[in-house]
UniProtKB/TrEMBL annotation:
Protein's organism: Nymphaea colorata (pocket water lily)
Biased composition (Basic and acidic residues): 1-12
Protein name: Uncharacterized protein
Compositional bias segments (type: Basic residues): 13-26
Region Disordered, annotated ranges: 1-26
Domain of life: Eukaryota
Length: 26
């Protein structure tokens, strides 16, 4: 149970950063 949310946490964080870079580059 604990290993599942831990792996998902970094994935969602990386996805959010990529999305945030798009508007910032504009």
């Amino acid at each position: 149970g604990p290993p599942t949310p831990e792996k998902n946490e970094p994935r969602v964080r990386a996805n959010r950063t990529k999305h945030h870079r798009s508007p910032s580059a504009k």
